[in-house]
Amino acid sequence: MLASVWIVLLAVNIEAGDGQSVQMDSIKSGFVGSQVELRCIFVNSNPPVKISQVTWQKFLNGTKQNVAIANPSLGVSVLPPFKERVTFKQAAVRHRTPSLEDTTIMFSNLRLSDEAAYICEYTTFPAGNRENMVNLTVFARPQTRMTLTTPTIVARPQKRKMTVATCLSANGKPQSVIKWDTRLKGEATFQETQNANGTVTVRSNYVVVPSRETHKQKLTCIVTYNNERITDSVVLNVQYEPEVKIEGFDGNWYLDRQDVSLTCKADANPPVTVYQWKVVNGSLPSTVEILNNSLIFKGAVTYELAGTYVCAATNGIGTRTGLVQVNVTEKPMARGPPGGVLGVLGGVVAAGLLIAIAVTVFMVCRRQQKTRTNTDNDLTDLPPAHKPAPPPPKKRSSDLKGHLTSDDIQVLTLDKKLPLQPPYYDMVPSESIPFTNKPNSGHRDCDVQYAELDTASLAYSPSTRSSMHSAGDLVEYATIQPSSH
Ligand SMILES: *[C@@H]1O[C@H](CO)[C@@H](O)[C@H](O)[C@H]1NC(C)=O
Ligand SMILES: *[C@@H]1O[C@H](CO)[C@@H](O)[C@H](O)[C@H]1NC(C)=O
Ligand SMILES: *[C@@H]1O[C@H](CO)[C@@H](O)[C@H](O)[C@H]1NC(C)=O
Ligand SMILES: *[C@@H]1O[C@H](CO)[C@@H](O)[C@H](O)[C@H]1NC(C)=O
Ligand SMILES: *[C@@H]1O[C@H](CO)[C@@H](O)[C@H](O)[C@H]1NC(C)=O
Ligand SMILES: *[C@@H]1O[C@H](CO)[C@@H](O)[C@H](O)[C@H]1NC(C)=O
TM spans, by residue (predicted)? Predict the structure, then answer.
């Protein structure tokens, strides 16, 4: 208990003896030309010590330089390089009996060379010297600007890269960062220069191949300085040769057609001043009239109009040509009649039906072939059959619709485990089928059925059937029966 009291007393004693301190900000910054306040407060002890003198010093590169001195009996002195720009903030410092507890200085019209550490030193009696330090940083706002290399850029056919714009951020401290924002497919070059006074100049060139596509494109330079964004935009003005195409020929110029014309369309900057027409290895027809950028053919179309027409468009940058080959036909070109859509629809339906039938038949054939290879091919010695003549093509789709309804196609699945029974064949009596139409091999069967879809050839002879179910395998079998015979 007694020991702890002693410790507390000791602590208070130490604080009382070492109680003076100099309070300052540790860092301070300002822009060139602006004013900063460098704080310096002396915290005295109780009982107070006596302040003999206060000295402000600039500390740079290991050397100290006096800035200002305040002395209770001699007054205040601000030294030459700082005389116009440094003052004590508190008027009491300059009084006849001054108060020197607050010796904060106002530093105005900052220069880059003012960047240094500043020491505020209190000389006291009997405690001796107390001091502290503030580091002053001086910033310089850069001059930022973007310039077009030339007001108008000319796109040359050689497609050479060139600097179209420059973005400059000069004499900044700290240094700026330049970026570009554009849809142009160009590239930027960057360059930075360190100045003797500590500032940095950053320059960036935007390089692009000028072309018709780069005309009117926006180019934005973004300069970031000290968390501050400065943007500047330009719109490129690119001059280029005419891009020419000839309109008006629709591929259907037939004899006696009236009022045909050709028009030379050119995209150009600056605009086209001269259009010239000619015909390759020939001359313009006598019936033609030239109106601005159009060729008007008076009267009816004749064979005389056929030929390759060339239009040459010229602007301040150059001349480019476009051409069109005009063919004249005797009759108007056949155009699909309005009913064409119906025809197409009908065709699609017919095609769908054909595919469905073809797939079914194909499946049947595959099964057949499979079973036949499993058994002795007793069909090879059948008399060779000739392929039946294909039906007239134009009647085919109606034939199919007429004879093959869904009831006519049956698919039977014979499971292996079921007792083998004579399968049911839903078909016309075999006598009604001429033997010569019967295919002689499995392969042929398929060809014929697939290709012709002839109802007669789709019926099988009894011998074909017996060979199929003798295999006793899984068999899918279709019979396609002509509904009316
Ligand atoms: C500071 O000192 C370095 C070498 O110690 C010297 O290169 C530099 O120029 C000095 N700067 C100033 C501002 O005197
Ligand atoms: C202030 O500057 C001095 C010397 O230039 C340096 O040693 C010190 O670390 C700096 N202090 C701060 C807080 O930047
Ligand atoms: C710094 O130096 C550059 C180049 O000498 C000069 O153009 C610029 O004005 C200077 N900046 C300041 C703030 O003195
Ligand atoms: C057109 O003229 C060119 C030379 O100008 C020649 O080479 C070409 O054979 C000619 N064609 C016709 C169809 O006369
Ligand atoms: C064609 O030229 C005439 C003058 O010759 C002008 O009045 C007219 O506007 C022009 N037409 C077009 C479509 O440029
Ligand atoms: C026009 O006729 C020429 C031959 O006279 C031919 O080579 C060309 O393909 C035709 N062009 C068209 C669009 O019919």
Answer: 341-365
